[in-house]
Amino acid sequence: MKLFRQFLAAASVSITLAAPAQAETVLTVHYPMPGFFKDVMDTISKKFMEENPDIKITFANPSATYEEGIQTIMRQAGTAEMPDITFIGLNRLRMVNERDIPVDLAPFIAKDGNMAEQGFSDNILKLAQVGGKQVGLAFATSNPIMYYNADLVRKAGGDPDKPPKTWDEVIALGGKIKALGGGVEGIDFRWQGDDWMFSALLFGAGGRMLNEDETKVAFNGPEGQKAIEVLDRMVKEGGLPVLTKQAGEQAFVAGKIGFAFQTTGALRNTIKNVGGKFDLRTAHIPLIDPVNGKLPTGGNAVVILTRDAEKQDAAWKFAKFAAGPYGASVVVPGTGYVPNNELAAKSPEYLGNFYRENPLFRAALEQMPRMIPWYAFPGTNGVKVTQSIVENLSRVVEQSATPQEALDDAAAEVESLLPRS
């Protein structure tokens, strides 16, 4: 009997060893801007793998910016290097879709049932649609806000409890802050890198990038002229120096700049880097046209690239998880972006109590009704279009061209890059 039991035990071990382990699906994920998103991605992926032990998330080398990220994906598309999932700037979804790179998520949404019950309203889904196709799911969305150094505002004779509500007020107070001396500057406006902050001025004036049928440039109209004149006045009257993006951010957190205008997505890093050096506040960004003005929706969407059916099912699970209530509850406190999932925004389990306890984050939340899509230029020259706009903005900041000259040159260059019908 003893020998028989030993035989059964050995047989059991043999069968266990021979049985194949549960298959593991490995997904390679690419994302941009690790300064904003590395900790967020690590947290989300760890939680996802705990809940989905049959799926492993690995990360490709992240890209420094949205622009670098889209160029990487365009270069890798259709090759073995292409990741299974990526996170693409909302204004570049059109570009990848025109080359049929992303997987259409409509069949997954139809199979899943009521997405609104999961916090994905029609308005949220539309943020990552191109021509009616569901190219991705909005992951991190943002709008531009005003950061300010309350100590410098107070020293310059302003009331930090009543921040400026118009660009005239910002520019006047920025000039007074610069006049304090000691290497202090009035304003840092994040014009570098892409056209997003120019869009904030343009849309804030009620303008648009192209005309209705997208055949001609419209940003050089009256609204665009007002927008670029505000930038010019920031330089001449408001104490806006010529700084790189990084140098501007460093100067602000060091207490050397009164007002900073950039994405709310930088808020968590700004809070951390300011520490206790000064009294940091946030407020709404002024609108040139307070009645009709809008704000561009910045941020990115999670996009599925893999054509492997098994990987697509796993990728859909990850995309929904990252863009869902848990993902939003990590993204918002971890960065400053606004919630792109309605369950996350309303539920005490996620962010329901967060905004009451963290007033610096409220400015962006309160501006959400003003948000419209970050404009995506048609055709394959989107990156060149952006570069043209930025290069001409730099001429205004450097005072090497008048606002009208820079605007006219940008319009002519962009029009030459638009697709021909």
UniProtKB/TrEMBL annotation:
Annotated keywords: Periplasm, Signal, Transport
Pfam families linked: SBP_bac_8
UniProt superkingdom: Bacteria
Signal peptide: 1-23
Main location, first listed in the record: periplasm
UniProt subcellular location: Periplasm
InterPro entries the record matches: Bact_solute-bd_prot1, SBP
Family: Belongs to the bacterial solute-binding protein 1 family.
Subunit structure as annotated in this protein's UniProt entry: The complex is composed of two ATP-binding proteins (UgpC), two transmembrane proteins (UgpA and UgpE) and a solute-binding protein (UgpB).
Function statement: Part of the ABC transporter complex UgpBAEC involved in sn-glycerol-3-phosphate (G3P) import. Binds G3P.
Name of this protein: sn-glycerol-3-phosphate-binding periplasmic protein UgpB
Species per Swiss-Prot/TrEMBL record: Sinorhizobium numidicum
